[in-house]
């Protein structure tokens, strides 16, 4: 299937997150529990939302919180993406991979798949990851043959510091090394290099843990810049539009896409104040002032 190229040419945002479900099959220590009402987006609502935001984005990410493979109708959601010519970016813990879901993830709409390998150790401790990785390897092998254009990232975002040892990931790394015939350096410095090419368009990506912003945290200051509303924004499962992919509770609500057009929401006073503030290096929102991740942009 040929996807419509003009969509990307006129895109205003690199990525727009559509949270198709805020329910997850795991509970990772690095990913705080969602306090909002749990829900799954209907196929009809997804189609309506995508019709509005799809033309604005280079790619659509099918999550903000939650595990996208839990959605019971994800195959239908991809039908809609392909019909509208939308490229899809997906992040998954990979635990729910089965033959049917692998078939779905290899469809033409997908541009990039990210698998959070660090979620396995965080939830299953010292359990052997061989069977877990076997499913991810199976998808990757098929992608090499069927979708050589597809980017795949294996993520290990659990380093304690920028020059952290990968010791906690040794078993996982050895299996990856054996599979792809690579020898990876046990000591990683993500200040210099985060991504390591394994084969074709498959990469191993390292990063440090970070603390999610919360109104319960102290302020870090009111100076800083962020890519929220310039490179991305998010639509939560109930249609709430937020400026940032880390606003997991909808603290910075800009409006609801079921009640207003996305153009009206993005043109709202609150949205414009946030954008203008970032351009001046000023954090206008209370949640932004409590965001640790924003330090990475300085």
Order of helices and strands: HEHEHEHEHHEHEEEEEHH
Cα distance spanning the termini? 41 Å
Q: What is the general shape?
A: globular
Biggest β-sheet description:
10 strands, mixed
CATH topological fold name of the largest domain: TIM Barrel
Total strands: 10
Helicity level: 25-40%
Low-confidence stretches: 1-10, 161-165
Tell me what the structure shows.
The chain is α/β, with parallel strands linked by helices and 298 residues long. It is 28% helix and 18% strand. Strands 6-7-5-4-3-2-1-8-9-10 form a ten-stranded mixed beta sheet. Strand 6 and strand 7 form a beta hairpin. The longest helix has 17 residues, at 130-146.
Topology of this structure?
Elements: H1 6-9, E1 13-18, H2 43-53, E2 57-61, H3 74-83, E3 88-92, H4 99-105, E4 110-116, H5 118-124, H6 130-146, E5 151-159, H7 170-180, E6 195-199, E7 202-208, E8 232-235, E9 240-242, E10 255-256, H8 262-266, H9 269-280
Parallel strand pairs: 1-2, 1-8, 2-3, 3-4, 4-5, 5-7
Antiparallel strand pairs: 6-7, 8-9, 9-10
Helix pairs in contact: 2-3
Task: Summarize the model shown.
The chain has 298 residues and is an alpha/beta fold. The protein is built from 9 helices and 10 strands.
